Amino acid sequence: MGFTKYTSQAEKERARMNEGIRAKEVRCLGPEGENFGILPLAEALAKARELGLDLIEISPNANPPVAKITDYGKFKYEQKKKDKEVKSKAKITETKEAQVKIGTSEHDMLIKASKIATWLREGHRVKVDLFLWGRYKYMEQNFLKERLERFLAVIPENYKIAEPVQKSPKGLLVVIERDTSKKAHSAAPKAPKEAAGEESAADAG
Predict the structure, then answer these.
(1) Which of 159, 163, 157 minimizes the C-alpha distance to 118?
(2) Which residues of the chain have pLDDT under 50?
(3) pLDDT at res. 94
(4) Is the distance from CB of 120 to CB of 176 less than 8 angstroms?
(5) I need a labelling partner for 52 at 20 to 30 A (CA). Which of 23, 116, 165, 198 fits?
């Protein structure tokens, strides 16, 4: 690629190159990473012209700025590749919500537990709400807490408590997250018959 001029203001702000570089001197790197040392800008530009490449400022905040002689198209490709890798490694986490009830069938309870396990493996936190209605609102708190803990025990994924059991507008809630210090269960443990559950996995928040 030949010696390239700027094509837009946005491009200038992204990475200065060639005559757009404002520093009087730069620490110049060659196309293969060679270190040409600190050169006057005019000399660094001349080297780039000789090679039929561009001089691109890659570390503008250094003193003096670092500029590399390279093909601008290759530079853009490598930058996009790096950005893509960073985005792919960045985990988008959120707090999922699941509502459970007392006296639900074992089958429905395990469906809900499996869904929560999936969220945990994806790196999300999960807020598990024990929904209380009618007479259940007035039952002893330790009994209700035990029911919530029974449900947590059948989740087929290792977890740790992120926020302890506490009262909520719906009843009781606890926030859990995956415990990466342990290996996940290979299968769900057998659920106790009298445990908190949910009518349907489709009601997960």
Answers:
(1) 157
(2) 1-13, 184-205
(3) 84
(4) yes
(5) 23
Tokens matching residue 191: 């659920």
70 DSSP β-pair partners: 54
Block residue for tokens 């009601």:
203
Secondary structure of 138-182 as H, E, C letters: HCCHHHHHHHHHHHHHCCCCCEEEEEEEEECCCEEEEEEEECCCC
pLDDT in the model for residue 90: 65
DSSP 8-state code for residue 60: T
Q: What pLDDT, in 10s, does the model give residues 149-164?
A: 989 999 999 999 999 9
Q: How far apart are CA 22 and CA 157, in angstroms?
A: 56
Under a CB-based contact definition with an 8 Å cutoff, are residues 161 and 187 in contact? no
Residues in the chain: 205
Q: State the CB neighbour count (10 A cutoff) for residue 121.
A: 12
List strands edge to edge, sheet with 25-29.
Answer: 35-40, 25-29, 66-70, 54-59
Domains of the chain from N-terminus onward: 9-88 (3.10.20.80), 95-203 (3.30.110.10)
- What's the CA gap between 22 and 57, in Å, rounded? 10
pLDDT score recorded for residue 12: 41
Q: Are 154 and 110 in contact (CB under 8 A)?
A: yes
Q: Is 32 exposed, middle or buried (0-12, 13-18, 19+ CB in 10 A)?
A: exposed
Res 92: pLDDT: 66
Contact 144, 136 (CB under 8 A): yes
The answer to whether the CB of 63 falls within 8 A of the CB of 21 is no
